[in-house]
Amino acid sequence: MYNAIRQAIIRFEQDFMGRGPTDVRALIIRDMVVVRLKGVLTHAERQLAKNADGIEMVKRMRQNLIAQGRDSLCNEIARITGVKVTGLFTDIDTEIGERIMVFTLDQDLGAVQPSGQ
Predict the structure, then answer these.
(1) Domain that holds residue 82
(2) SS3 breakdown of the chain: % helix, strand, coil, rounded to 5?
(3) Number of domains observed in the structure of the chain
(4) pLDDT tens digits along 52-63
(5) Which end of the chain is more exposed for a tag (fewer CB within 10 A), N or C?
(6) Would you call 112 exposed, middle or buried from its count of C-beta atoms within 10 A (0-12, 13-18, 19+)?
């Protein structure tokens, strides 16, 4: 399941963001799927993120792209886990080029197993 989650996130990043991350790790904690993506910023985004206005622009653009693909991404995580996704929370740190995604689920999957290490 962890590898399927990782692959789904990589495909999403490639399709919606234009490039994939350098590393993806997934963790299931009860009723949450936590995904850590490293190396997500493009060269242009790294240049923009050198000042406060650019950071805000990169974050806003990334949030808009997530919003556009939210349904398909949540449906894919639901298909993989076999349970309904009730929420998706995400943020990006432009200084280190990492994104965190947290999917909340309507059922407890129970496991606490990291992947992608």
Answers:
(1) 2-105
(2) 45, 25, 30
(3) 1
(4) 999 999 999 989
(5) C
(6) exposed
